[in-house]
Amino acid sequence: MFRTNFTFTTRFGLIAATALLLGGCGSQTAEQPAELPTAAPVAEMPTQPSAVVPTDVPAMDSGSVVLPEVDPSTVTGDIVSAGSSTVYPLAERIAEGFKDAGYTGNITIDSIGSGAGFERFCTAGETDVSNASRAIKDDEVAKCKAIKREPVEFRVGTDAIAVVVNPQNTWAKDVTIEELGKLFSTATMWSDVRADWPAEPIKRYSPGTDSGTFDYFVEVVFNKDKSPILAANPQMSEDDNVILQGVEGDKDAIGYFGYAYFAQNKGSLSILSLNGVEPTFDTAEDGSYKLSRPLFLYSTADIMKAKPQVASYINYFLTHVDEEISDVGYFPTKPDVLDASRNAWLAANGQ
Questions:
Q1: 112, 196, 219, 347: which has the fewest C-beta neighbours closer than 10 Å?
Q2: Do 2 and 89 form a contact (C-beta atoms < 8 A)?
Q3: pTM of the complete model
Q4: Banded pLDDT at 62 (limits 50, 70, 90)
Q5: Nearest Cα residue to 261 out of 2, 3, 52
Q6: How far apart are CA 5 and CA 143, in angstroms?
Q7: pLDDT grade, residue 265 (50/70/90)?
Q8: What are phi and psi of 249, to 5 degrees?
Q9: With contact defined as beta carbons under 8 Å apart, do 49 and 261 qualify?
Q10: H-helix or E-strand containing 203?
Q11: Cα 163 to Cα 259: distance, rounded to the nearest angstrom
């Protein structure tokens, strides 16, 4: 688990990379509850990155909805957030900008996985903001309502799950979704997937079960059935750096995590295309890259009313996210989708 507490003026290292894909949820979304106030139609490191800026992200209008201007130097009170390790570097970047612009309070950001983040937000009621790389589920909404919290969803960008191998792996360049399923379930040797691949044992690395990245991977690759991948007993961790180091250190390894982690480490990893499609802004946008998904923040109108600093932080996030998201390693969402998130903020704050 990563935890960032912006108590000091020291700046934390951010992850760079390519701007992630547009899917807060679109056709690639998990279980969107109908009654949830939603900011958009739905369609998880803290290390110093090298500046990897994607070249395939088109210039985009950042939307027409303008939120009330926030002066961070006038904002007081602390902010507590937790959730997706994928959203973590983006949230850290925005929080750093909020701090640099004059905010003197504390912003806590815990990287514990989307599911664990919703537990803190909807069951324990401990956090002001929940960061997620999947949409909130019906049962999580019910838990929120049980403690009198009505989640409001803010779509902030798009990620692509990168499937990565060691650079010494010279045989695997492109796989089908079915082959990817075998690699993370029944196959024990690479040659079990394709006869011309080496008869070497597959070393699997996966985010943990609290991760939204795990949830989305299972949804797409295994039709929401966790049992095949769990039966294969991969090395699992909520810390994406564990996966990174595992794949870096073994030529027979394979793993997956948010695209930003790959973009930051392009020199030490190779990425697989899926069904002949590489992850880019366009392939995430049109859904042809099957492992693209949306990125979200969640809060409630009551929290933002009781803690104006939370409303100001989310306002600042939605206002400045398109200025930062590509450098962090994700793809911006469409202007109309971002506008929907801004309108959700306005509605939640009575404006």
A1: 196
A2: no
A3: 0.74
A4: low
A5: 52
A6: 27
A7: confident
A8: -95, 5
A9: no
A10: strand 203-207
A11: 9
Task: Please give the Cα distance from 192 to 211 (Å, whole number).
Answer: 28
| Whole-number Å distance between alpha carbons of 24 and 293 | 5
If we measure between CA atoms, which residue out of 159, 156, 158 comes closest to residue 341? 156
pLDDT on residue 61: 56
**How distant is the alpha carbon of residue 329 from its chain centre?**
10
Confirm if 14 and 310 have CB atoms less than 8 A apart: no
Contact 183, 318 (CB under 8 A): no
| Distance, CA of 254 to CA of 183 (rounded, Å) | 8
Pairing mode, if any, of strands 107-111 and 79-83? parallel
* Dist CA 98 CA 10 (whole Å): 13
Residue 13: pLDDT band (50, 70, 90) is very low
Listed in sequence order, the DSSP H helices in 55-191 are 88-100, 114-118, 138-146, 177-183
Report the alpha-carbon distance of residue 175 to residue 242 in Å, rounded: 24
Cα(173)–Cα(270) distance, integer angstroms: 8
pLDDT for 282: 83
Q: Which of 64, 283, 76, 72 is nearest to 162 (CA)?
A: 283
Residue with tokens 């934390």: 12
CB-CB neighbours of 12 under 10 Å: 18
For residue 253, pLDDT beyond 80: yes
Q: Are 154 and 344 in contact (CB under 8 A)?
A: yes
Read off the tokens for 85. Answer: 């390790």
Instruction: Give residue-wise pLDDT tens across range 129-180.
Output: 999 999 999 999 999 999 999 999 999 999 899 999 999 999 999 999 999 9
